[in-house]
Amino acid sequence: MFKKILIANRGEIACRVIKTARKMGIRTVAIYSDADRHALHVRMADEAVHIGPAPANQSYIVIDKVMEAIRATGAEAVHPGYGFLSENAKFAEALEAEGVAFIGPPVGAIEAMGDKITSKKIAQEADVSTVPGYMGLIADADEAVKISGEIGYPVMIKASAGGGGKGMRIASDDDEAREGFQSSKNEAASSFGDDRIFIEKFVTQPRHIEIQVLCDSHGNGIYLGERECSIQRRNQKVVEEAPSPFLDEETRKAMGEQAVALAQAVDYASAGTVEFIVDGDRNFYFLEMNTRLQVEHPVTELITGVDLVEQMIRVAAGEKLSLTQEDVKLTGWAVENRLYAEDPYRGFLPSIGRLTRYRPPMEQAAGPLQETGKWQGDAPAGDVAIRNDTGVFEGGEISMYYDPMIAKLCTWAPSRAEAIEAMRNALDAFEVEGIGHNLPFLAAVMDHPVFIAGEMTTAFIEEQFPDGFEGVTPDEATVQKLAAVAAHMKMLKEERAAQISGAMANHRRRVEPDWVAFIGREAIPVHIEHDGDGTRVRLLDGTEFEVKSDWRLGDSVFRGQVGGERMIVKTEFIRGGARLRYRGADMKVAVRTPRQAELQAMMPVKLPPDTSRLLLCPMPGLVVKLAVETGQEVQEGQALCTIEAMKMENILRAERKGVVARINAGEGDSLAVDDVIMEFE
């Protein structure tokens, strides 16, 4: 077995690999850029080597620099994680020439399956059902438009060397095909150093289901069930679960056997994933094979008890698989939510800055991983497992140079319904401050009836949130419970004030029992009684809640029971009241005296400033292209400029017809959120 491995990656996946290597008694080497000098993976590794400036194409994906780090540290093997160099055949060849083991598949398998065009041809030769498309390379935008028309819209424009949603666009007409081709080509060159593009038919109403395979160099291969990855945004997965709520055992077996056969056709040896598009009749079509560890691998580990990173290391060391297909058992259900540094209220645009608060829910182990001892959490075991794979820490910086994913929150439970409920509670307890993040959106998905029913497709977000995410509006029952929580908090605050008043003036101030709770603009009269066991809150209609909690003034999370039901609510005292966040809802709450409530009703509502004549930068980023000039008339939907952030190009368009009066930014400028890019007459 290896004594030292280098991890050619960063962030949460580097931390994930380090954990397994440490368990196996293997020393680890981290690499880092200028932006990651104080990153968590650098802290966790036994050694760390600086490899260059912040941009990935000057550091993490520069093969020569990584090779220098390997030589300097004497690492015997390299785990590439995912992204960056994980599917780069030239990197694997460089390692082979150096006599260093690649913890991944052979070069031939990477070349055959890592390239989407080649893999489609091999799949067709192996009689695997594939999606119609053009497998040749496409020279320019005109050819892309011609091919798209021949295939029939809608089409998917994809980077041949792509992955993770980078270099992908859906086109519904010639204009979108032309524009999508160029954007995909640019993103592919920036992210992978390979700008080759191909086009295939976009299957409507599809489900994205993938099979995890594991093969060794001795001819053995198994599949470890499937993952449902249909909830995506811009072809980037957001929520995954295992198993799929859609597949039956017959389809699962057929997909698994086909996936293993395809892997063995190219002498695959390592962990890999074969992705399929599945229609409503459970017909499945080969999409691509990812010759690496997938981001969503934890859900497979949670239902099988198999540590995939450990298996990859053992296969790379020449060991045979210790498992047969008969040994693979799928137990319970696991759900993964990806926590992104992006603002769902601003169209999910990237957000950067300092994590002023980062408090994930406490991890705990249960299910197959607990039984096999492959992974243990920090809390006592129970019927629910909580796992958080992360690469950040409180006080750390979220950089504009890398992918916006900062954590993967996973839950396991005996059933799907229990796993979802565990995820709801875990999201409620997850504290993130200082940046925009998608926790409220994830909470909304977990409560969405389409997701709960397991009937989602890859169009879920577009169909269920057509106007974007504008927050969650809680139902009346939830509003009443939150009013009870706010009343409990107010009572404790008033009692503290009364104690201080009594100590200072030698008499105890009386705490009034009647108040009015404001949830947003809704006023809810409440009667509060408090004793040592809890607070009883009675509403005007006679509804009564008993609030029990050990919450104290200053605590940022309320954990307790309201009316006999468990609630976890993020709390924060702000000017004029408190901020409560629960199940995706973010509300300002105030509890006032009846007289104060009368006066508040007379207060005018402050209107936001008019920015309709301004083009504001919606995220921190770099101006890549200005598409208009001063004095030019623009039409609704016309491209105005392109902003690049976190390896993604974002085209800003005109919301209405107008004339450009002034341009305040130039190509190459770095902008902050709400910087004025253009002004209109």
Outline the secondary-structure elements:
Elements: E1 4-7, H1 11-23, E2 27-33, H2 40-44, E3 47-52, H3 63-73, E4 77-79, H4 89-98, E5 101-102, H5 107-114, H6 116-125, E6 133-134, H7 141-151, E7 155-163, E8 166-171, H8 174-192, E9 197-201, E10 207-215, E11 221-233, E12 236-242, H9 249-265, E13 270-278, E14 284-290, H10 297-304, H11 308-316, E15 333-340, E16 342-343, E17 349-350, E18 353-354, E19 357-359, H12 367-372, E20 385-390, E21 397-398, E22 405-413, H13 416-429, E23 431-433, H14 439-446, H15 449-452, H16 460-464, H17 476-505, E24 514-519, E25 522-531, E26 534-539, E27 544-549, E28 557-562, E29 565-574, E30 577-582, E31 585-592, H18 594-600, E32 614-616, E33 621-626, E34 633-634, E35 639-645, E36 648-653, E37 658-663, E38 670-671, E39 676-680
Parallel strand pairs: 1-2, 1-4, 2-3, 4-5
Antiparallel strand pairs: 6-9, 7-8, 7-9, 10-11, 10-13, 11-12, 12-15, 13-14, 15-22, 16-17, 18-21, 19-23, 20-22, 24-25, 24-31, 25-26, 26-27, 27-28, 28-29, 29-30, 30-31, 32-39, 33-35, 33-38, 34-37, 35-36, 37-39
Helix pairs in contact: 4-5, 5-6, 7-8, 13-14
